[in-house]
Write the C-alpha coordinates for this entry.
Amino acid sequence: MRKRASLLALALIACSGAAREPHTYAAEAARASLTGAWDASLSLTRPYPLGMSSPSARRICGTIGFVADHRRTGSDQADAASLGVYDLDLSRLGLNWLADSPFPSALATAPLDSAASLYRPDPITIVLNPGSSERIVLLGSHDLVGIEGNWVAQSARGTASGSFSLRPHDAARRSC
Protein backbone atom coordinates (compact mmCIF):
# COMPACT_ATOMS: atom_id res chain seq x y z
CA MET A 1 0.00 0.00 0.00
CA ARG A 2 2.84 2.38 0.83
CA LYS A 3 4.40 1.72 -2.58
CA ARG A 4 1.15 2.66 -4.36
CA ALA A 5 0.86 5.88 -2.37
CA SER A 6 4.44 6.81 -3.25
CA LEU A 7 3.83 6.12 -6.95
CA LEU A 8 0.61 8.14 -6.86
CA ALA A 9 2.37 11.09 -5.20
CA LEU A 10 5.20 10.90 -7.74
CA ALA A 11 2.71 10.80 -10.65
CA LEU A 12 0.80 13.81 -9.27
CA ILE A 13 4.01 15.81 -8.95
CA ALA A 14 5.15 14.85 -12.46
CA CYS A 15 1.79 15.74 -14.03
CA SER A 16 1.15 18.91 -12.07
CA GLY A 17 2.69 21.16 -14.74
CA ALA A 18 4.95 22.91 -12.23
CA ALA A 19 8.03 22.10 -14.30
CA ARG A 20 6.55 23.84 -17.34
CA GLU A 21 6.14 27.24 -15.68
CA PRO A 22 9.87 28.15 -15.41
CA HIS A 23 10.39 27.06 -19.03
CA THR A 24 7.65 29.44 -20.23
CA TYR A 25 9.07 32.35 -18.21
CA ALA A 26 12.58 31.58 -19.43
CA ALA A 27 11.43 31.57 -23.05
CA GLU A 28 9.64 34.92 -22.63
CA ALA A 29 12.63 36.47 -20.84
CA ALA A 30 15.02 35.28 -23.54
CA ARG A 31 12.76 36.69 -26.23
CA ALA A 32 12.35 40.06 -24.51
CA SER A 33 16.06 40.53 -23.80
CA LEU A 34 17.99 42.71 -26.22
CA THR A 35 21.33 42.06 -24.51
CA GLY A 36 23.94 40.97 -27.03
CA ALA A 37 24.94 41.65 -30.62
CA TRP A 38 22.39 42.01 -33.43
CA ASP A 39 22.84 41.94 -37.20
CA ALA A 40 21.04 45.04 -38.47
CA SER A 41 19.66 45.96 -41.88
CA LEU A 42 18.16 49.38 -42.67
CA SER A 43 16.40 50.10 -45.96
CA LEU A 44 15.60 53.59 -47.23
CA THR A 45 12.05 54.19 -48.49
CA ARG A 46 11.91 57.98 -48.49
CA PRO A 47 15.11 60.11 -48.38
CA TYR A 48 15.32 63.61 -46.93
CA PRO A 49 13.50 65.97 -49.32
CA LEU A 50 16.11 68.71 -48.83
CA GLY A 51 19.16 66.51 -49.29
CA MET A 52 22.26 67.93 -50.98
CA SER A 53 22.69 64.77 -53.04
CA SER A 54 21.06 61.40 -53.55
CA PRO A 55 21.91 58.71 -51.00
CA SER A 56 24.62 56.32 -52.24
CA ALA A 57 22.70 53.24 -51.03
CA ARG A 58 19.12 52.15 -50.46
CA ARG A 59 20.09 49.45 -47.94
CA ILE A 60 22.86 49.19 -45.36
CA CYS A 61 23.89 46.46 -42.96
CA GLY A 62 25.87 46.42 -39.77
CA THR A 63 25.75 45.53 -36.10
CA ILE A 64 24.07 46.88 -32.97
CA GLY A 65 25.12 45.69 -29.51
CA PHE A 66 23.07 46.15 -26.31
CA VAL A 67 23.60 45.77 -22.57
CA ALA A 68 20.90 46.11 -19.91
CA ASP A 69 20.70 49.51 -18.19
CA HIS A 70 20.88 48.53 -14.52
CA ARG A 71 21.20 52.16 -13.42
CA ARG A 72 17.49 52.82 -13.92
CA THR A 73 15.68 52.44 -10.61
CA GLY A 74 12.27 53.05 -9.19
CA SER A 75 8.88 51.49 -9.62
CA ASP A 76 7.63 54.39 -11.76
CA GLN A 77 9.77 53.29 -14.72
CA ALA A 78 7.36 52.27 -17.49
CA ASP A 79 9.95 50.68 -19.74
CA ALA A 80 12.95 48.38 -19.52
CA ALA A 81 15.95 49.97 -21.19
CA SER A 82 19.02 48.66 -22.96
CA LEU A 83 22.02 50.80 -23.85
CA GLY A 84 23.97 50.16 -27.00
CA VAL A 85 26.37 51.15 -29.73
CA TYR A 86 26.10 50.53 -33.43
CA ASP A 87 28.29 50.04 -36.47
CA LEU A 88 26.12 51.25 -39.37
CA ASP A 89 27.24 53.64 -42.11
CA LEU A 90 24.18 55.89 -41.91
CA SER A 91 25.75 58.44 -44.26
CA ARG A 92 25.20 56.01 -47.16
CA LEU A 93 21.44 56.48 -46.58
CA GLY A 94 21.88 60.25 -46.37
CA LEU A 95 21.55 60.21 -42.57
CA ASN A 96 23.87 61.40 -39.81
CA TRP A 97 24.82 64.42 -41.93
CA LEU A 98 25.69 66.57 -38.91
CA ALA A 99 27.86 63.93 -37.21
CA ASP A 100 27.15 65.73 -33.93
CA SER A 101 27.00 62.59 -31.82
CA PRO A 102 30.25 61.88 -29.94
CA PHE A 103 29.90 58.14 -30.61
CA PRO A 104 27.27 55.95 -32.29
CA SER A 105 24.94 55.29 -29.37
CA ALA A 106 21.59 53.52 -29.17
CA LEU A 107 18.85 53.35 -26.56
CA ALA A 108 16.19 50.65 -26.68
CA THR A 109 13.03 50.48 -24.61
CA ALA A 110 10.36 47.84 -24.26
CA PRO A 111 7.39 47.55 -21.90
CA LEU A 112 8.32 45.99 -18.55
CA ASP A 113 5.04 44.14 -18.21
CA SER A 114 3.60 43.63 -21.62
CA ALA A 115 1.64 40.55 -20.49
CA ALA A 116 2.82 39.06 -23.76
CA SER A 117 2.30 35.53 -24.81
CA LEU A 118 4.84 33.58 -26.78
CA TYR A 119 2.71 34.11 -29.88
CA ARG A 120 2.35 37.92 -29.88
CA PRO A 121 5.24 40.24 -30.77
CA ASP A 122 6.47 42.76 -28.19
CA PRO A 123 6.77 46.44 -29.20
CA ILE A 124 10.33 47.83 -29.19
CA THR A 125 11.57 51.39 -29.64
CA ILE A 126 15.23 51.96 -30.52
CA VAL A 127 16.70 55.45 -30.83
CA LEU A 128 20.00 55.87 -32.66
CA ASN A 129 21.97 58.96 -31.57
CA PRO A 130 19.54 59.85 -28.74
CA GLY A 131 21.45 63.05 -27.81
CA SER A 132 21.83 64.26 -31.38
CA SER A 133 19.82 66.82 -33.31
CA GLU A 134 19.25 64.10 -35.92
CA ARG A 135 17.78 61.14 -34.07
CA ILE A 136 16.72 58.03 -35.91
CA VAL A 137 13.79 56.26 -34.24
CA LEU A 138 13.20 52.58 -35.00
CA LEU A 139 9.73 51.27 -34.07
CA GLY A 140 9.34 47.53 -34.33
CA SER A 141 8.05 44.27 -32.99
CA HIS A 142 10.21 41.69 -31.25
CA ASP A 143 9.23 38.07 -31.85
CA LEU A 144 11.01 34.73 -31.66
CA VAL A 145 12.97 35.39 -34.89
CA GLY A 146 14.13 38.95 -34.25
CA ILE A 147 12.91 42.52 -34.57
CA GLU A 148 11.28 44.12 -37.62
CA GLY A 149 9.69 47.47 -38.17
CA ASN A 150 10.01 50.95 -39.61
CA TRP A 151 12.33 53.86 -38.87
CA VAL A 152 11.98 57.62 -39.18
CA ALA A 153 14.59 60.40 -39.01
CA GLN A 154 13.75 64.06 -38.63
CA SER A 155 16.10 66.99 -39.09
CA ALA A 156 16.29 70.45 -40.60
CA ARG A 157 16.22 68.73 -44.01
CA GLY A 158 12.80 67.18 -43.41
CA THR A 159 11.84 63.59 -42.70
CA ALA A 160 13.44 60.42 -44.03
CA SER A 161 12.02 56.95 -43.45
CA GLY A 162 12.41 53.28 -44.19
CA SER A 163 12.26 49.78 -42.75
CA PHE A 164 14.65 47.74 -40.63
CA SER A 165 15.29 44.26 -39.30
CA LEU A 166 17.48 42.98 -36.47
CA ARG A 167 18.49 39.36 -36.00
CA PRO A 168 20.65 37.87 -33.25
CA HIS A 169 24.25 38.06 -34.45
CA ASP A 170 25.45 34.99 -36.31
CA ALA A 171 29.07 35.17 -37.51
CA ALA A 172 28.43 32.39 -40.04
CA ARG A 173 25.50 34.17 -41.66
CA ARG A 174 25.99 37.16 -43.95
CA SER A 175 23.60 39.96 -43.04
CA CYS A 176 23.61 41.68 -46.48
Summary: Strands lie at 36-46, 59-68, 79-87, 105-111, 122-128, 136-142, 147-155, 158-168. The mean pLDDT is 77. The chain is about 15% helix and 40% strand.
